[in-house]
Amino acid sequence: MRDSISLGEYLYHALRTRITSGLLEAGSPFLSIQQLREEYQVGFRTAREVTQRLQEEGLIAVRPRHTPTIAYSLTGAARQTALAQAAAQRDALLEVCDTLTLVLPLFLSGAGGIPPAVPPAQWEEMTRAVGRGLEAGEWRTLVQRFAQALRTTGTPLFHSVFIALLSSSRPGLFLGEGRAYTAFSQRIRQVLTGAMACNLPQEGQSLRAVLHSYRELVERSLPPQTAPGCTGPLFLWQLPHLPDYRYRRLVHHLLQDISSGRYPPGSFLPHEGALARSHGLSVSTVRRAMALLRELGFCRTLNARGTQVLPRDQAEAIPALSAPSARQMVYTALQANQLLLLLLESITHLSLPHVTQTDRDALSHALTQGEQAMPLITQLLLERLPLSPLRHIGTQLFHAVQWGSYLCLPQATHQAPLHGPALSALFTGDCLCLGQALCAHYHHTAQRIRQLAAPPLSPGAT
After folding, report:
1. What is the CATH code of the structural domain delimited by 246-312?
2. pLDDT at 142
3. Which of 373, 396, 445, 456 has a CA-to-CA distance to 351 between 20 and 30 Å?
């Protein structure tokens, strides 16, 4: 994702992709302003401006006192244009399909100690939707049923990631009207029937096979990419309430330095001009970051002296969580932790073979400087992840979890016993043990955050 993309720009790209991918059918109702606000966690003004922008481009039709409808149709010249764009981004598109093939079955079968995201009771309605077989275009019905089931889990990130991955895979181009659906619908029906019988791990594998066949369909439908693809992003996804703004990156960096002991309590942070120069930011951006640090209780500004780091243990952390910004960050961190746990074992399996001895030496050196092992290991695995969409998702989840850790767990020494097995597995190349150690660490982190945040925040609340 680009640096400092605004919520409005992200919402526009996300909705435009859902429309032009064929996920939203021509003539079907578009999301209302209220639905956009709830699903994407944006304000009324942002939702209205994006809707007007889509209307001006002819993607939706808006009439007074009527529900907006989709005006874009993947037919004729529009279809040829979309196919040409897909061909120019073929490699990136296949990575999206690979990520979807990896992630979606985990929602079905569960992983990393996280139960299935869709309870078995939710499968009956989806099974009825394909009971007579999927006719042309009816794949959208199944998508809507599955998306609705994910929205009932209490963790909006599952639904958000599913929609972002699916729309980026351009299903309308490759499951377009007029194609035969007999074999496809039979395999989907088998998956849903098995899920209703609670045979979730096996049906997760069956769903992976179905998605892999879709990936093969995409690969056959597009010519090999012989030139660099388009410079624009194919996959966009952003955590609600925690956009990747530059001032938040600076806060995250300073919290990491405070947590690691680089800036102990009583010491002073670098002055605004030095931070602006070292991070390539404007002074106003640095001031916004320092204001957030003060609001969260990590520092105070003394006239003519600078910004001093405050001592912060559990007693100081609990009052700071009463701030609305902190409450929302912690809630987002808990949601991100749940999704990260679901993906961690797969991330470890994909990334560890790409970790070099140079990476291990650099990590060992960082540990001698007082850095914490588990965040370093997780960050290294994400950097070496070969699937770009999964790397993007995992990185955002990791940063959100770190926000929660810094807010609630200023001292991380209680997690030290978990570091040894993880480091040993990393240096010996043991994917299974490393994945288990990381999952144990983040399970423990989530438990501690819930315990500390319980008085001001209920994790199940919206």
Report:
1. 1.10.10.10
2. 75
3. 445
Whether the CB-CB separation of 339 and 388 falls below 8 Å is answered with no
Give the span between the Cα atoms of 379 and 353, in whole angstroms: 15
What are the average pLDDT values for consecutive 10-residue runs of the chain, which has 462 residues? 67 93 90 89 90 95 88 89 90 94 82 63 58 60 77 78 92 66 54 55 70 86 73 78 73 80 86 90 90 83 86 63 72 89 94 94 85 88 95 92 73 59 90 92 84 55 40
Residue spans of beta strands (DSSP E) within 245-353: 299-302, 306-309
The dotted CATH code for 1-73 is: 1.10.10.10
Task: Report the sign of the C-alpha dihedral through residues 179, 185, 186, 191, in that order.
Answer: positive
CATH class of 82-224: mainly alpha
What's the CATH number for 318-453? 1.20.120
Exposure letters 289-313 (e unless 16+ CB within 10 A, then b) = bbebbeebbbbeeeeeeebebbebe
Read off the amino acid at residue 413.
T
pLDDT at 4: 52
What are φ and ψ of residue 140, in 5° steps? -65, -35
